[in-house]
Design goal:
Blueprint: E1 8-11, H1 14-22, E2 26-30, H2 39-51, E3 55-57, H3 59-69
Parallel strand pairs: 1-2, 2-3
Keywords: Signal
InterPro entries: Isochorismatase-like_sf (IPR036380)
Protein name: Isochorismatase-like domain-containing protein
Length: 70
């Protein structure tokens, strides 16, 4: 992706979202499409993503963005 013209990425995994944010991408995570096992870890990763500048949203907004951009 580093050689591409992408500036935004949509993610479902916290680790991938955090990696992409560190690389300078605008990262969007649809929270209602994600699932986790450990609730305290989910809260921790959510906070970590927010602090890294990851944008949290829902699937409906992702679909709206996609339809608007295409």
């Amino acid at each position: 992706m580093a050689d591409s013209k992408f500036t935004s990425v949509f993610m479902l995994l916290a680790a991938s979202a955090l990696d992409a944010a560190k690389l300078g991408y605008r990262v969007i995570v649809a929270e209602d499409a994600c699932v986790g096992i450990n609730h305290s870890e989910i809260r921790h990763k959510r906070q970590e993503m927010l602090e890294a500048g990851v944008h949290l949203t829902c699937v409906a907004k992702v679909i709206f963005i996609h339809l608007t951009l295409t």
